[in-house]
Amino acid sequence: MELEVKTLDGAVAGTVALSDEIFGLDPRADILQRVVRWQLAKRQAGTHKTLTRTEITKTGKKMYRQKGTGGARHGNKAAPQFRGGGKAFGPVVRSHEHDLPKKVRALGLKLALSAKAKGANIFVLDEAIAADPKTKALKTKLAALGLTNALIIDGANPQDQFRLAARAIPQIDVLPVQGINVYDILRRDTLVLTKAAVSALEERFK
């Protein structure tokens, strides 16, 4: 698959060949769902917590006599059925993380890239370089290229001026190539790869 390479000013800067082994696979929703679920579970805080009856400060004295009242038999006021009592079987602090084989993760990334390529939602940029960290100027250039909702993947070290200019633009994300992931690819309409990112991805999956 060959795509045009463009500059930020909209000029054509040649073409680049994308490997069919990375960008030409048939998308599989089941693999993509597994990888996205794994990613989101991994970053879920898991800090939800309720107090159990052993953690509630209530009197343990029997509230009234056992027999003769006509009511139910009750003791400790920290029991779950009372207002202010402990929660029975409530959530506890825990990790939501689960395992996913490395081969499935790698396949998921290839499938996400292929899905963007199949939908003609991949854009190849010559370089992601800004002369000044000016958000307005960069936003105008990206809008002229039709990039209003995009994930921009650069080489290992994105230029600071470009990154600073882009971070205030809504629905535009900039990541180094080592940070590329399925969730971020799928949540944006267009995937923008620099020539350095394309080379790094092909080297990674060689």
Distance between the termini: 17 Å
Structural class: alpha/beta
Q: Tally the helices: what do you get?
A: 7
Approximate helicity band = 25-40%
- In the sheet with the most strands, the strands line up as 2-1-3-6-4-5
Strand content: 5-15%
Order of helices and strands: EEHHHEHEHEHEH
> Radius of gyration in whole Å, from Cα?
27 Å
Biggest sheet statistics: 6 strands, mixed
Shape: elongated
Count the E strands: 6
Average pLDDT confidence is: 93
Unreliable spans are none
How does this structure look, described?
There is one protein chain. The protein is 33% helix and 15% strand. The model has no long low-confidence stretch (mean pLDDT 93). It is α/β, with parallel strands linked by helices.
What labels would you give this structure?
206 residues; alpha/beta; 6-stranded mixed beta sheet; 33% helix; elongated
Summarize this structure briefly.
This protein is α/β, with parallel strands linked by helices and 206 residues long.
